[in-house]
Amino acid sequence: MQQIRRDVFQAIADPTRRAIIGMLATQTMNLNHVAAAFDISRPAISKHIKILSECGLVTISRKGRERICRADLGQLHDVAEWVNQYQKMWNTKLDALGSFLEQEQSGHNNL
Prior knowledge:
The chain is of the alpha+beta class. The chain has helices at residues 8-12, 15-26, 31-36, 42-54, 76-109; strands at residues 29-30, 58-63, 66-71.
């Protein structure tokens, strides 16, 4: 069976996975506790956790019969860098637009 290569962007594209990351960012939880917080089936939550694990955003360890889920947010650095490049670009464009509009406004006020 071919393994699907997943990345962080795929993981955060889904709102349920983003919610799971948010929960696990504040505390470590067992899989049942994570599943109880959502109105979807436990197998669906397990699939989301698996995707998050494949992307490196969640680590799963066993403690007895429990599966303990822990957030590993280091992978979000790639997302932050990607977003930051566009944020800088848009800030530059919006600053230029603001300057242009100010010049236009002051030119009209001088008439």
